[in-house]
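pinging the channel bc i need a second pair of eyes. not urgent but kinda urgent?? the chain im working w is below, pasted from the shared doc
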Amino acid sequence: MYLLRAIIIFNFIFVLGLNAQTVSDPCARILVGTGQDSLIWSATPCANFDGFIIFASPDGVSAPVAIDTILDLNARGYRNSNPGETARNYRVAIICGGVIVSTSAIVSNQRPITPDLRSVSIIGGSPVLSWNPSPSPNVIGYQVYKENPYASGNFFPYPANNQIVNGLSFVDPNNSSLLVRYAIVAISSCNAGLLGEGNALDGTTGPHSSMFLTSSIDSCSGNITLRWNAYENWRDGVDFYIIRMIRNGGNPQNLDSVNTSSFVYPAAQNGDALEFWIEARERNNNNNAISNRVLMNIDVNKKMDFLHLTSISIDAATQEPVIGWNWDTDSDFGSAFLQRSDDSLNWDNVQTIINNLTQNNNILDNSADAANKQYYYRINFTDACGDNIISNKGANILLKAKAKEGFINELNWTDFYFEFAVADQYELHKIVSTSDLNIATLPQTQTVYNDQTNVNNPAEANSCYYIEARGVINIPGNPPRYTFSRSNTVCPEQKAVLWFPNAFAPEGKNNEFKPLAGFGSTLESYLLQIYDRYGAMLFESNDLERGWEGTAAGKSLPQGVYVFVARYTQADGSSGEQKGTVLLIR
């Protein structure tokens, strides 16, 4: 390629100097491996041409001396024996009429010296090469070589065989990868240097590879690990690497200087935009090389910022505990459980909570026996990285009731318990038929109450009760708020009570023998029988409202003492019997 270029130059000069007597543009080079030097030149012979004189320096330092004469008018080249392929200088003169009329410049047979690369950097997303100038004279430019594929050791002229770079840098805009390796060659008008592969023959430190920076993040710790390939082939090596960063579009900052090819940036914060790159500095020199830039939009594990139990109440319809809570829905969900305990010390997972909830939630514990037991509850949450947070705890209110004599219902309940909360008051509700009545507002210290039922209202025989506690929650970092806790509903059943008169007068006001019944409607069965003193049954009724009128077989009976027997079954299945005598008065 370069010989062709020299011939083109020669032909151009020959045409211009047709009437001159000159010899110029000599080129000399070692024909490597042949033990010869090749010399070519351009010339415009004179009319009285005598010949060309070849001058050579045997050591490449001293002045050239004549070694041969060429009488051929058309000669433009010469080969000279150089068995040791040592450095030599050459020049050519033209003789016309016995006189040297033109002498060329002195040229060396040495290839131009290929300089060291200064750096390969990634700038604006493209590799940029820079190098030192060659110390050789007559260097007209440089040829870039690129390794393809990377790490193969195969270098090819880039981007084309005959493209010469005139300056001391080259931008590769067509790279398919940011991890690339380059070498260069120095070019003179008639010679080319050796490819700078870093061996003893070419004398360079070798090719340079770009630094390709990669990054990874541990979403749990927020630690970012930066890795890059070590910069290669500076003469004295790398002094250190500077880790540089721009945070959220701000000013560049130096994070650290290291001697390794990795770096850990700790605890990146969610929402940050971090741009990293590496700058390598050469030891004992001022060269530097820059890696590609890596932009990271940080999305690391979001921890649960708050988790608060807000209520525990018994559902009126199902009589099962409903547990309410609020939590930070922006956290990275791992797992969550509703936990239950009998003693607030030993906890069991009773329900799995799935991740489709809002900030405020509630869950029904359908495996609890809330009519007979008090339970403690809490929410246990684990994020995607295994960090655990547990809510405050609380308990349901367990209400119990007992029907006592005198038509009194005795009520007692467990204390309101809610971590970070204190009871403010209790409201006692009584349900009669379809009416829900608030029958008492009680202080937080009271947990027992006796309710006198109204025996004149048959519906009160099946009165039901529940307690609603009002508490004030004081969760740290939050304003006080009320919480309400409803107990289970209890329905104590008052037993029916029968009072029989000891006398009656069919012709008087008390003209019928039957019992006065308290909550008699609750009886499951009832039977009244009347006997005379001989044991003969005179009357029978299973209706509390149908009494004996002192007759038998349609005839009035005489005044006297008669025997009655009343048998009945209470609503709870227990049976009762009352016996006595009654005086029939005429």
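so The chain has six domains: 2-108, 117-209, 213-297, 307-395, 399-486, 497-584. and The helical segments are 2-16. — does that match what u expected or am i reading it wrong
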